[in-house]
Amino acid sequence: MKKTIAAILSVCTLLSLCACGDKSTADTSHTNGVTDEMSVTDGGHTPPTDAFDTVNVDDIISEFLTQAESEGTAPEAKEDGVRLLGDKIEYDGDGINIDGKTATVNKAGTYAFSGTLDDGQIIVDVPKEDKVTLILNGVKIHCEKSAPVYIKSCDDATLTLAVGTVNTLSDGSAYEYETAEENEPNAALFSKDDLEINGKGTLVVKANFNNGITSKNDLEINDATVTVTSKHDGIRGKDSVLIKSGTVNVSSGGDGIKSNNVDEADKGYITIDGGALNVSASEDGIQAETVLSINGGELRIKTGAGSENSWSGNPYGGASEASAKALKASSSVNISGGTISIDSADDAVHSNKDVTVSGGNITASSGDDGVHADETLTISGGKMNIKKAYEGLEGVTITVSGGETYVKASDDGINGAGGNDNSASGGGRPGAWGGMHEASNAKVTVSGGYLYINADGDGLDSNGSFTMTDGTVIVDGPTNGGNGPLDYTSSFTVSGGLLIAAGSSGMAQNVSSSSSQCTVLVYVQGQGGDTFTISKNGEAVISHTPAKKFECVLVSSPKLEKGTEYTAKAGNGTEVTFTQSSVVATAGTGGGMGGPGGMGGGMRPGGGNRPPRW
């Protein structure tokens, strides 16, 4: 289901992370490291209530393209440098061989180009140790049967866009090669060696044949405004792609930005340090063969026609078999900064191994998982708002030690599971139907931060263990009796922090008896918007307003004390009076096959309403 999170949470003050029974006095307010102070009975976190703001990447790119075309339709050739004059080329210096409408740079140096070339080409062919800089001073080059700019041989090539100029490269729909074995160049701007694009100008690339920009080695972009529309991949740097600053716009029929060196472990990476990136890709948005690092910048990414092209809920259909993830890497995805907005048909963030989020601000709407790691997912900082996903956070080992995370999932909010979801390779998207499966080594740990889960499947699901030592976790869990706010296989231990989990009771589980912080599972019914309270001597010490219907609420808090009598109530409904007689207690009547160590939601290892994930 597609529901907007509309809950207002009022949570108790974490006076100290004391063990159950510790009656020490502390301050009456607390800063949890995420938002402002919150008092005992009022205030607290309010989950985002706005609907997902669609990433209008296509409109942004179209606007850039329209502006560039209006500003650079008829560049004139300068008197100095290389003059492109429609059907011929003029040049008065040395270092360049002119043959009809082809200019071949054959000597190291810096060369400026201006004007229009109707069907011609610039080639760089110098000794491998030489460096060449091409200054594009307002050019419009079309090459019908090959790449308009072809860096055939050099050490380093630099493409500098003159300040304030608009430079356009375009190709035809088919290339011609001298032999049947050749397949290069295959991009409108193609370099066999290192390529840097810089300058305060604009480069527009229209690739009708295949890729937009390709470097067979390292590709770097600084300052420049680069807009690429391509039949296949937009921007490729085989060994690496580094974007330091500027504006990069990509609209591609394949991947948006890609580094694809599969043979060398220290290559095939992408690093984004700054700038503005707008990527609309039919397949993956930004894909690194090894490591994808985002340290800054503003990124807007749309893949596979967006999250509305979701396959979830239809295990036998599916929108596409192509991988359409927004951020993807085979080794690791590391996010330490930047503002990232995602609207993806497939996983918003995906790694075949590890994902680490230590900073930044991420907003995502996904047709599959919000964040998926085949191995380890670590969240230590930043703010993340998964507004729509099938499963919110997924990995074999999930560790949350900081940050502020909101998740809205149509299945599990957090899923600690084993294996992979087969969706990284692109052969079987959406892959969550057949890869992640039950594994006793699955482990979820929360030791800090703030985590809000709104799940239609299990709220917190681990096919192994779940450990909580600190932090705040709020779960508005399922209304479906075949799921539960908690679903674990081996153990769920709590020794600190605040945990409130509300939802259906048919498969409800309490935490493990080995927990050291007082926890109570209260069977009490309420509707979305009904405030649930636990009071002592008439004063509320725990208060939470679930977003939807609930039949039970599990609470673990340092405010609960062993041997103390409490009254629990949902809205204006029935009151349940209980004494916290043990560390792990139950109040009221209800539930089904759950309970401490019970089956809970574990009848189907993957959780939710889908087939088991074997």
Description of the structure:
- The protein has 614 residues and is mainly beta.
- The chain has a domain at 57-259.
- It contains 1 helix and 53 strands.
- It has a 22-stranded parallel barrel.
- A hairpin with a 2-residue loop joins strand 48 and strand 49.
- The protein is elongated and about 95 Å long.
Task: Please supply descriptive tags for the structure shown above.
1 helix; mainly beta; elongated
Structural class: mainly beta
Beta-strand content estimate = 35-45%
From the structure provided, what is the oligomeric state, counting identical versus distinct chains?
A: single chain
Shape: elongated
Specify the number of helices.
Answer: 1
Average pLDDT reading: 86
Largest sheet: 22 strands, parallel, barrel
> Considering DSSP H and I runs of 4 or more, what fraction of the residues is helical?
under 10%
Which segments are poorly predicted (pLDDT under 50) over 5 or more consecutive residues? 1-44, 312-319, 422-437, 593-614
Straight-line distance between termini = 24 Å
Radius of gyration: 28 Å
Number of strand segments: 53
Write the topology of this structure.
Elements (H helix, E strand, L loop, with lengths): L28 E2 L7 E2 L17 H15 L10 E5 L2 E2 L5 E4 L2 E4 L3 E9 L3 E5 L5 E13 L5 E5 L2 E6 L4 E6 L15 E5 L2 E6 L2 E6 L3 E5 L2 E4 L3 E6 L4 E3 L2 E4 L3 E6 L4 E3 L9 E4 L3 E6 L4 E3 L2 E4 L3 E6 L23 E3 L2 E4 L3 E6 L4 E3 L2 E4 L3 E6 L4 E3 L2 E4 L3 E7 L3 E3 L1 E4 L3 E6 L4 E3 L26 E13 L4 E3 L2 E12 L9 E3 L2 E4 L3 E6 L15 E8 L5 E5 L2 E6 L5 E7 L8 E6 L4 E5 L4 E4 L27
Parallel strand pairs: 3-7, 6-8, 7-9, 8-10, 9-11, 9-12, 10-13, 11-14, 12-15, 13-16, 14-17, 15-18, 16-19, 17-20, 18-21, 19-22, 20-23, 21-24, 22-25, 23-26, 24-27, 25-28, 26-29, 27-30, 28-31, 29-32, 30-33, 31-34, 32-35, 33-36, 34-37, 35-38, 36-39, 37-40, 38-41, 39-41, 40-42, 41-43, 42-44, 43-45, ...
Antiparallel strand pairs: 1-2, 3-4, 5-6, 46-50, 47-50, 48-49, 48-51, 51-52
